[in-house]
Putative chitinase (Mucilaginibacter oryzae), 197 residues
Amino acid sequence: MPGTKHLYDTIRSALFGGHLTQNHVDGIEAIISAAKSGGVTDNRQIAYMLATVYHECGRTMQPVRENGRGAGHPYGQKLKMGGGPGHRVPYTTPDQIYYGRGYVQLTWYENYESMGKLLHIDLLNNPDLALKDDIAAQIMVKGMTKGIFTGVNLDRYFNVERTDWVNARKIINGLDMAEKIAGNAKLFYKGLTRSGA
């Protein structure tokens, strides 16, 4: 991979209004590091992760709490997913609400529980751990590479036969803002490779 200077020169004006803060850089570095540690070698996949965070975290490149902290959503109450809508299961412990946190807005009791087990950390009792950049990055990498969030993963959209910037959004959230995120992912990819999409 070319040096990060090329990446930052490419995205500074196009995505960050001409100014990158230390928080932007720290977040980008945490994501790239977690991706590489997670075995991701395809720059298209890394670029898509960066574009996802850029969108989900309001351009901050830092893990964030969901606006409203789950208000108006069933996961914003002490309910498990259970059997789906109409069959939610209440819980009393831990005394936590599992609203969206992190780079990809992890939600629901069961998702915090399973991701915590996968990463060998107690996310169920300490959901704010998902706001630490290294843990948020690991959650994102595991979820996007293994298809944990929606059942589809990065390999489905970026492989030797396919580069699908738009439909890759299905890894996180249907096709919500898919075109915009695709365009941003191409800019990150250009910065990661010097060649672009």
In short: The two ends are 15 Å apart (CA to CA). The first helix runs from residue 4 to 16. Residues 85 and 104 are 22 Å apart (CA to CA).
